Amino acid sequence: MSLNYLTVPANTTSPQGLIVLLHGWGANARDVQALAPYLKQPAYQYIFPEAPFPHPSTPAGKMWYDLTPDLQFEGTPGFRDRPDVSQSRQQLTDLLQTLAQTTGVPLSRTILAGFSQGGAMTLDVGLSLPLAGLMVLSGYLHAPPAAQSAPPTLMVHGIQDMVVPITAARRAKNALQAQGIAVQYQEYEGMGHEISLLVLEQMQAFINTVLHSSVNTPEETTIG
To answer: Which residue segment(s) compose the domain that 150 sits in?
Structure first.
């Protein structure tokens, strides 16, 4: 099986890079496809994969894996070996490798990004691939990372997030940095579980840094 996806083509026959953006739990590819114009990167091709599993209560929604009502994001929930997580991990990895072949854009010119559960999948898959960068929006970490080196990583989270608590983002950031992974981390006061205009601006800046520049210099900052 392969993942279905939507795409927004670049304004050139030879895209300068790929931006792959994963939706969250209960959403779908169209939800994140709407973000493309706000990122203002017309020379890049956008790919919006659709998660493989139907959401249990949202007719048009999809999920990368099921969530239990008692899930504690700030702990270590042990997702790594679950069958649904393993299937999504393999299919997403296969898609990224296939895109490198079909588009002619290497993984080193590809940014993987995701919101919420899509952010967790971004870390799950992206930490072990030679990508240009990762963007984790209101996301969390499935388990302590095994990677000793990884792409530059942007993590953005709202302090008032009532879905994935800010403690989950802070724990993930600390775990990544403990492995020596370069993390650009920002918290936003007054922001909940959402992708705000401030986040879109931060994404633009990160894309410009890792794809437009040959030197990556991420740093940790906190807003709010």
So the answer is: 5-212
